[in-house]
From TrEMBL:
Highest taxon listed in the record's lineage: Eukaryota
Organism per entry: Chaetomium strumarium
Name of the featured protein: Aminoglycoside phosphotransferase domain-containing protein
Cited InterPro entries: Aminoglycoside_PTrfase, Kinase-like_dom_sf
Pfam families per UniProt: APH (PF01636)
Gene3D superfamilies reported for this sequence: 3.90.1200.10
Domain Aminoglycoside phosphotransferase: 165-221
């Protein structure tokens, strides 16, 4: 039998642990009784990708992680996980969500607003707790493995990448221009940073209002601004026929700007309007953009 471990700061969530496979279970966030849903794109490409991710999880990653030696087809497969989720949730209204993580399998009940996630490894509860404390104390110093600590090495590696220089000279020049300014990272506050701040990890209700952010278990303390790359990658452009591009069509506001430029300016103006009064835009703007570039380079 699996063991149920309470998560005090996420009640009424609980964690169900199997040998080398973990399941997290919780009601999803909601507003006015409307369950949150993961922002997703339901076109054919996304559906194919969803199936590929699920198959890879059960036929490659699960067998590699099960210490019992049981095969995924006989002990832990998609059908058995869905059935288990139905049993612990007390409902047959269970189906795989549209956007799957690469190291987990997630199902939900839209009617009950419940999410059940089957994980290769248990959640890092220490990080989850830190994410829920809303920075009650000063964050811990940067870990040696943090992207902030490794910023100089990252930029140096990219500058030595001749393929990058030849295929993307504009990007290469931007990276090179940041190297002399890396010391500015030390002027930014250290904050708990989501390392995968993408649309698949953002929860909204039916009116589009934000209700939560998930997948904090890989978060780490970094210089402020290192998760902003997700906005550029997920909200300022889109994937079409396997090629990603910005929303560079004209905006319908007689300003002569593109849709991307309108979104980008709106974001930065809102960020600095709502940032801590101790963070002065004139002093921090360059440092934040360097922080953004370092995070994107790590991707």
């Amino acid at each position: 039998m699996p063991s149920c471990v309470p998560l005090p700061l996420l009640e009424p969530c609980f964690l169900v642990e199997f040998p080398d496979v973990a399941v997290s279970h919780s009601p999803s966030d909601s507003q006015n009784g409307v369950p949150s849903k993961i922002m997703d794109d339901t076109d054919d490409d996304w559906k194919r990708q969803k199936r590929e991710i699920i198959d890879k999880f059960f036929y490659e990653k699960v067998p590699e992680n099960l210490s019992s030696g049981l095969s995924s087809t006989s002990a832990c497969n998609e059908v058995s996980c869905i059935q288990f989720a139905k049993t612990i949730s007390g409902t047959d209204d269970i189906a795989a969500v549209d956007n799957q993580g690469s190291h987990s399998f997630t199902v939900s009940s839209p009617r009950l607003g419940i999410v059940v996630q089957f994980r290769l490894k248990p959640l890092r509860l220490d990080t989850i707790r830190r994410a829920n404390e809303i920075y009650g104390n000063l964050p811990k110093p940067y870990a040696e493995s943090s992207w902030t600590k490794s910023a100089k090495a990252t930029v140096r590696r990219l500058m030595n990448n001749t393929s990058l220089r030849d295929t993307a000279p504009e990007l290469y020049n931007v990276i090179g221009s940041h190297y002399p300014q890396l010391h500015l990272l030390d002027t930014l506050p250290a904050v708990l940073t989501h390392h995968d701040f993408a649309s698949v990890n953002i929860l909204v209700d039916d009116s589009g209002h934000l209700t939560g952010v998930i997948d904090f278990d890989e978060a780490a303390v970094e210089a402020f601004g290192m998760c902003v790359w997700g906005l550029y990658e997920c909200f300022f452009g889109s994937m079409d026929d396997g090629k990603w591009s910005f929303y560079d069509v004209p905006a319908d506001d007689d300003s002569g700007r593109t849709i991307r430029e309108v979104l980008e300016q709106t974001f930065w103006e809102s960020l600095w309007t709502h940032a801590s009064p101790n963070l002065y835009r004139e002093e921090a703007e360059s440092a934040v953009k360097i922080s953004l570039s370092i995070e994107y380079g790590e991707r």
